[in-house]
Amino acid sequence: MSADEVGTAVAREATKLGARAAVVYLADYAQRSLVPVTGGAVPSRSPVVVDGPAGGAAFRRVELVRSPGDDGATVLWVPLLDGAERVGVLELDFDGEAPADRDEEIRAFAALVAELCVTRDAYSDVFTRLRRDRPMSLSAEIQWELVPPLTFGSERIVIAAALEPSYEIGGDTFDYAVNGPVADLMVLDAVGHGLPAALLSIVGVGAYRSARRDGVSLVETTARMDRAIAEHFPGSQFATALLARLDLATGQLLWVNAGHPAPLVVRDGELLPQDSCRSSLPLGLQATPARECSVQLRPGDRVLLYTDGIVEARSPEGDFFGEARLADFVVRAEAAGDPPPETLRRLMNSVLEHQAGKLQDDATIVLVEWRTGREAHVRL
Length: 380
Fold this sequence. Notes:
Blueprint: H1 6-14, E1 21-27, E2 33-36, E3 48-49, H2 55-61, E4 65-68, E5 74-82, E6 85-94, H3 103-121, H4 126-130, H5 138-146, E7 151-153, E8 157-164, E9 172-179, E10 182-190, H6 194-213, H7 218-232, E11 239-247, E12 252-258, E13 264-267, E14 270-271, E15 292-296, E16 302-306, H8 308-311, H9 322-335, H10 340-354, E17 363-370
Antiparallel strand pairs: 1-2, 1-6, 2-3, 4-5, 5-6, 7-8, 8-17, 9-10, 10-11, 11-12, 12-15, 13-14, 13-16, 16-17
Helix pairs in contact: 5-6, 6-7, 9-10
């Protein structure tokens, strides 16, 4: 099946669930709208606003939502998930009431639809074009191909990330890998803007992944990244970065800070005092080995790794977004029951609003929540 046949195939197969119509919606890059996938036998639809009811609520809350349709029909909105990654939503229209006893079957069907969308996207531009509402810069094109999925979740850890401006991101990037009992994470901010910054970040990420896959320490990984950037980008070019390693069994978090904002830890609704461990020099400028820092997490702790474009976002009146506002936002989102991916989506909207809709710098954030694996309900 080619990518442009997915919408038609889903509409056809959904009739076996009793649905009279089915439409696949994919989230745009900024996660502000859900765009319908067209095809033969697929009814015409307009994009759905993520912050709206029905389909938007299903995407935000990652749960089935029922809404009234025309002529006594019922519309069932089902989140499309690739693992923990929110891909979009599926609209299923039923005559009369939607069959509540088939929810698990419908979820399984939606999971298959999500997998089809993700796998077909790997060798086609159909869905990529659909998810864009404007041209994308060359640097952003590179960065979106570089980053891993925005969300990962298991019994032990949840990782969620966000990048802005979605269509113009330059030197900001992030990376992570979960290998057995260890999770490695990295946030990087390359000096400059646009394509030159993106190229610098590519070298940094490449060196990071190479060292991580060799199984070396965070200090040695930092040294390899430093050498790679210094060799290929001489002069005053550099990158700040924060590398972290979390033991999923014990909750011990190690990190190396290379001229970057320090990580923030939110525990029981409060921001912990920042660790006094000093930062090392940025990558490309280091003359001595980096320092390794550590903190012991408790179950449920949330760790924020971010670039300065978040806290230094400045309002038209000159007011910085700041660390206190960042932590307060995460605390209130947690109290409201927002899962980590939705927390970051709303946070980025808040940062944009703070700067009157136009970021002055790239902004990237990664939220990590450590769990013991004994929680009765894992909400992603």
